[in-house]
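Record type: ASSEMBLY
Status: queued
Input:
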Amino acid sequence: MKNEEYEDSQLYKIRHTASHILAMAAHEFDPEVKFAIGPPIENGFYYDFEFSKPLTEDDLGTLEKSMSKIIQANLAVKHEMLSHKEGLTRIEKEDQPYKVELVEGIEDEKLGFYTIDWFSDLCKGPHVSSTGEVKAFKLLSVAGAYWRGDEKKAMLTRVYGTAFGSKKELDAHLAQLEEAKKRDHKKLGPQLDLFLFSELVGAGLPLWTPKGNILRQTLDDYVWSLRVKKGYQKVEIPHIAKSDLYKKSGHWDKFQEDLMKIETREGHTFVLKPMNCPHHTQIFARKSWSYRELPQRYANTTMVYRDEQTGELAGLSRVRSITQDDAHVFCRPDQVKDELLAVWDIVSELYAKVGFKDLSVHLSFRDPNQPDKYLGEARVWQKAEAELEQLAKQKNANYVVSPGEAAFYGPKVDFMARDSLNRQWQLATIQLDMNLPERFDLNFINSEGKEEQVIMIHAAIMGSIERFLSVLIEHYAGDFPLWLAPVQAKILPISEKFIDYGQAVATELANLGVRFELDDASETLGKRIRNAENQKVPFVLIVGEKEVADKTVTVRSRGEVEQKTVKLTELGNVFSIK
Amino acid sequence: MKNEEYEDSQLYKIRHTASHILAMAAHEFDPEVKFAIGPPIENGFYYDFEFSKPLTEDDLGTLEKSMSKIIQANLAVKHEMLSHKEGLTRIEKEDQPYKVELVEGIEDEKLGFYTIDWFSDLCKGPHVSSTGEVKAFKLLSVAGAYWRGDEKKAMLTRVYGTAFGSKKELDAHLAQLEEAKKRDHKKLGPQLDLFLFSELVGAGLPLWTPKGNILRQTLDDYVWSLRVKKGYQKVEIPHIAKSDLYKKSGHWDKFQEDLMKIETREGHTFVLKPMNCPHHTQIFARKSWSYRELPQRYANTTMVYRDEQTGELAGLSRVRSITQDDAHVFCRPDQVKDELLAVWDIVSELYAKVGFKDLSVHLSFRDPNQPDKYLGEARVWQKAEAELEQLAKQKNANYVVSPGEAAFYGPKVDFMARDSLNRQWQLATIQLDMNLPERFDLNFINSEGKEEQVIMIHAAIMGSIERFLSVLIEHYAGDFPLWLAPVQAKILPISEKFIDYGQAVATELANLGVRFELDDASETLGKRIRNAENQKVPFVLIVGEKEVADKTVTVRSRGEVEQKTVKLTELGNVFSIK
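Status: finished
Output:
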C-alpha cells in the first residue's frame, strides 16, 4: 500500500499553522521581536525568534494563552503568491532582517505568503484554512539555535511545540513524552550497568560493560543467524586506511571535514574509517570473478568514526564511534531483486523479533526529468526502481515513493517502524550503488566472457548498534525479553547455609547455557530480591531449607506476583528460550 | 626445571666466535673493510661491514672458504681487558671509525677485547676458546642495514650466517629454513585466500577474507571457550580516546612517537589506541567494588595500532593494525596466584590444541639490589615473584628466571613454545601491573572496610592474532586441522546431472554445521580435485551415478590415497570434530 507522505498530511498543516500562530503570540509578548523560520518537524513544530527581552520556559504559559485566543477566533489563513520584487518590498517594510535575508536567497520568480489577521509570513505552506483547525497544541521547551545553524551567526531563541487534530491525540503524545523521559536510555544505561562514558576517554565514545556487551553481541549474533542463511560471509578490516582510499572513493572530497585524520611519522595521511564500503571493495577486488561466483556477500560488524561536534552528542543516539552491522553485496544486475528480498526478510525478522510494529518503507528514486544528475545507465535505474516498487507490493508493505531523493549513485530503501511508545524510527537502510563499482573498477566476467560492472548493495540491518540500542532500551524500558536479558536469572540463597545448594543450581544453569548471577551477598533476602527487580532480571531463583530437601527451586518471574516451585531437574522448562 | 639462558650456552659462544671469523674473512675479501658490529642472534649471527667494493650473495662462497681455513687452523681466542684509554688508542691505530665511535660511547673503565690471530675486536664476549670449536657454519644472506639502525646514518652491508656445534645440527637447521621458505605465510596467505594487502588501504594493514576470518574467529572462539570457564566476561571499547587517557596512563610520555594522533575540528587530540588497558581501567572504575566482587576479568579481542616504519613491516609478522585477544584481570593481592594459574591453564590448552611443543616460561623479576627502581611494596613483589616461581614448579615447567628484567611496574611471565619446524616462539605473556592501578586509583573495599589497591593482570593468550596466524600458517603449512580449516569439505558432483544430489549433500553438511563449498564449476573432475587439494581442504566428497543410487558419498581424505564410501546419513561420523 502506497502511503501518504507526512508533508501532505492534515497533521503537517496543523503544525505549520500552529507555528505561525506562535509567531503572532511572540509578537504580542514582545512587539520588537524579529522572525526567523518556523517549520513543522517530526513530532511538532518550532519557531526561531530574536527577542528584545529574555524569554524563558516560564513565559510559555503566556504565549499559549495568546495562541488559544487566536485559535478560538478561528481566523482565516489566506494564501497569496507575489512576484519576487513585491514580496521583497513587503518584507523590507516590516523591518524583519532575517526574512529579508531569506527572500534574497530565494531565486524563484514568485514568493508564497500566508496571512492570518495582521501577520503575513513568507511561507511555502501548506496550511489549514483557518486557525480553528488547530484543535490541540502545547508549547514544550525553549532552546538556543544559531541562525541558519551556523555557529558564527546570531544565536536565536527557539520555541518548540506540538499540535494535533484532537485533544485526545495530544494527550496521548504528551503521556508518551512523559513515559519516554522515564525510560531515557541515558538514565537506564548506567542504572542497568550497560555502558558508560569516561571523561578521560572522551565524550561520544561509549565503553561497553559486560552486560551491555551481551546486548550488543546477542543482537549481532541474531542478525548474523539470519544473514548466514542468506549466504553471507564475515570479513574483517582495520579501522584505518590511507587517504588514497577515500580520495578514490570520493569520500575525501565530500566529507573531509568529518574525517578523523592521522599524520604518520613518515608523512603519510591515514584516515579513521567513516564507513566500511571502501575497505570491502578492496577485499572483493582481490581476484577476478566469474558470473557463477556472484553474489559475494561480506558482513562485518565494526566501528566507524565521525568527528561530531561535542554539542551534537547525545547518549547513544549520537556518538563519535558508531558500530555498524554492515554488509556489502557484490552482485550481477539480474541478482539485485533476490538480494533485496533477502535483506527485506532479515529486516522484517529482526523487527518482529524485537516487537517493532507498522514496518513501512520509503523508496528514494531518481528524478526522471533530470537523468544527467545520476550515475549509471537509465535502463539499470529503471529496472532497479521497478523491482524495488514491485518488491514493496509483493511484500504487502506500506510504502512511500520519493522521486528525486535518490543519491546520485543509486536508489535507496529506508525501513521505518514504531516502538512500544509509538515513536517512528528509521533504522535499516538498503542502498543500491553503481558509483563505487565504477570508481574501483569492480567487475565480473559475464556468461558471454565479457567484463561487466557489478552492482553493490549496502545493507546494514540495525544500522548503528548504539542508536539501535538507544531505541531498544527505551522500547523495553530496560525490561529485556529473556533471550536478550544480560542476566537471565539470579540465584538467591536465603542464608549462607544454602550457598552450596545455590552453587549446584548455578552448575545446572551453566549447563543449560543460562546467563546467571549467584547473589550470596550478606544482605537481607528482601533487599536482594528488590535489587534483582531493579536490575530487571527475568527470573529470581530462591533456595532455602525446603528447596534443598526437595531438590527444587522457588521461581519468581519478573512482573508476576505468584511464585512457583520447580524441580532442579526441570529448570530447563523455565528457560526454554524462544 | 630451571633452564639455562641462551646467552650462557655453548651455542651462543660458537656463533659469537663465528661472527669474528666472518670479520676476518671479510678483511681477506676487502682489506679496506671497516668493521661495525657482529653479535650472535636467535638462530645465528651477523656482522655489519662497510666494504670498499660491492659484496653480493655470490661472494658468500669465497667468504666461507676463508672462514673454513681459520676454523681448520684451530686458532686460540684470547681475551684481555684494557683500560678505556689503552683500548681507544689500539682502535684508533687501526683506522676503524665505527669501532672508535663505539668505544667513545662506552662509559666503562675497562674494555674487553677478543683476539684471534691478527684480528683483535672490541667485544664483551663470551667466546669459545679456539676457532676449531665452530664445528659447522653457513653464511645465509646479505642485506643492507643502517649504522645503529638509524636511517639518517650510513648504510652498511650485513652478512647473516648461522653456526652449530655439529654438522648434523646445522643440516637440520638448514632443512628447516628450506621448509620454512616453502611454508612462508606471505605466499600461503594469498594462495589459500586468507588475507590480502591493498595499496589503497596501505602497507601493514591486512584485510581478512571470509576464509581468513574463519581462522581468526575460530581461534578466538576457542580461546573464549577456555576463558569463559575461568569467569571472564567480554567488554567492548572504541579504538580511540582523548590524549588525556594516555597522559594519565604514562603511555603519552613513553611512546609518543609510536602513537597515531588525530586532531579534531574542535582542537581535541585523540589517539588511536596503542593498547587496551587504559580503556579497560575506565570500565573497572565505573563503580566502587567490594572485596567479594573481585576478581573482575575483562576480555576483549580488538585491534591496536602502531605507527611502524614501512621498512619494518613484514607480512602478518609485523603490522600496523594488531588484533589482540586481550584481557585484564582486576584482583586482590591474595587472588593473583589463582588468576595466574587460570591463565596458565588456558595457554597450555591452546598450545596443546595447535600442537606446539616444549612449552617453557621465562620469568622476568626485579633486581633485588635496586628496590628503588620498582613501583609497589617490596612484600607484594616478593610474594608475587615467589608465587610465580612456585607455580612454574607446580606446573613442572621448564623455566628461566631473569632478575632485573621485570618492568618497573611488575613481574612478567613469557610463554615460549616450538612449532612443527622446531622454531621457538614467544607468544603469550602475563604481566602483573601495580602501576596502572596506582595511576588510575583502582581500589576495592577490603574485608576490614578499608580502601586497598587492586593488582591488574594483563593476559593476552594468542597475543597478536596476526603474528599468531603467521606462525600457525607456517606451522601447519596451510594444512589446518579439521576444526580450524576454513573449508572443511568440498562437494564435487561428477557432472551437471548430479548437482541436485550435491545440493542434498550440502543440506546434510549444513545441518551438521560443516563449513563446505559445492564446486559445480564446469571444469573436469580431475581439475576440481586438484584444486581442492591445492586449497588443502580436509575432505573431498564426490557424487555421481552410483552415489545417487546408493544414497552415499565417496570421501577422499586429505593426504590419503584410498577413498571410502559413506552413507549420506552417516556423514556425521566423518566430521566428528575433535
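Annotation: Chain A touches chain B through 61 residues (CB under 8 Å).
Annotation: The mean pLDDT of chain A is 92.
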